[in-house]
Amino acid sequence: MSLFLEQWKKLAYIKCDLAKRDWFYGTSGNLSMKISDDPLLFLVTADEKDKRDRCDEEFIVVNEKGVPVFDTELSPSLETLIHANIYERTAAKCVLHVHTVDNNIISELYGDEGKVVLQNNEMIHILTGSFDNLLTIPIIENATDMAQFVKAYTPHICHDFGAVLVRNHGITVWGRTPLETKKWLEGIEFLISYHVKMLMIQGQKIKAL
Ligand SMILES: CSCCC(=O)C(=O)COP(=O)(O)O
Ligand SMILES: [Zn+2]
């Protein structure tokens, strides 16, 4: 199997798996996978397409400017330049972006602090391999201007894997392999969901006193 087809299938598997979790509300979310370094080329989902749909044209091949390299009726994701920026600055091979209710709540709750610190959970050990039991996720403001948006992400794109929460918008996670990226996305969503539910229960407890 050609490398290109192999990458396509891996990304299609991840897209299908995230769709089963119902992480593509409306037409939100976008996914990409690098297929070559020089020149930079990557597969990316199409703008406004329902990412729960399986179809022949699931992904578009784009260059470092986010421009399709083959003829297509589809437009690349509006967030393609964020994916391109991550590939240009790191050795990441995959970028996943989803909007969930829990990641939106946490981004709003801690938005003014510019970060959320997740702690004291075995999932952190599973993700990081360290017993530090602390994971800090930066939170940036949402933006409609893409150049400004890319600029806001940039200081946080300093490792080959990472995550950024966008306030009242969603989360973007990248990693060195597609499976590592999916693992980080699932792990972080688990920790965020746990955190939100704990706050809800603790709030109820305080009210009952
Ligand atoms: C500034 S992008 C607004 C839409 C969005 O947040 C999203 O995740 C889906 O965009 P796409 O163009 O990839 O369908
Ligand atoms: Zn989005």
Automatic annotation (TrEMBL):
Keywords: Amino-acid biosynthesis, Lyase, Metal-binding, Methionine biosynthesis, Zinc
Pfam family of the protein (one): Aldolase_II
Biological or metabolic pathway of the protein: Amino-acid biosynthesis; L-methionine biosynthesis via salvage pathway; L-methionine from S-methyl-5-thio-alpha-D-ribose 1-phosphate: step 2/6
Stretch forming the signal peptide: none
Cofactor(s) needed by this chain: Zn(2+)
This protein's GO CC annotations: cytoplasm
Class II aldolase/adducin N-terminal domain boundaries: 9-196
Any one GO molecular function term: methylthioribulose 1-phosphate dehydratase activity
InterPro entries for this protein: Aldolase_II/adducin_N, Aldolase_II/adducin_N_sf, MethylthioRu-1-P_deHdtase_MtnB
EC number(s) recorded for this UniProt protein: 4.2.1.109
Catalytic reaction equation(s): 5-(methylsulfanyl)-D-ribulose 1-phosphate = 5-methylsulfanyl-2,3-dioxopentyl phosphate + H2O
GO biological process, alphabetically ordered: L-methionine salvage from methylthioadenosine
Positions of Zn(2+) binding: H97, H99
Keyword presence, Metal-binding: yes
Highest rank taxon of the organism: Bacteria
Cofactor note: Binds 1 zinc ion per subunit.
Protein family membership: Belongs to the aldolase class II family. MtnB subfamily.
Function in brief: Catalyzes the dehydration of methylthioribulose-1-phosphate (MTRu-1-P) into 2,3-diketo-5-methylthiopentyl-1-phosphate (DK-MTP-1-P).
Subunit structure as annotated in this protein's UniProt entry: Homotetramer.
This protein's name: Methylthioribulose-1-phosphate dehydratase
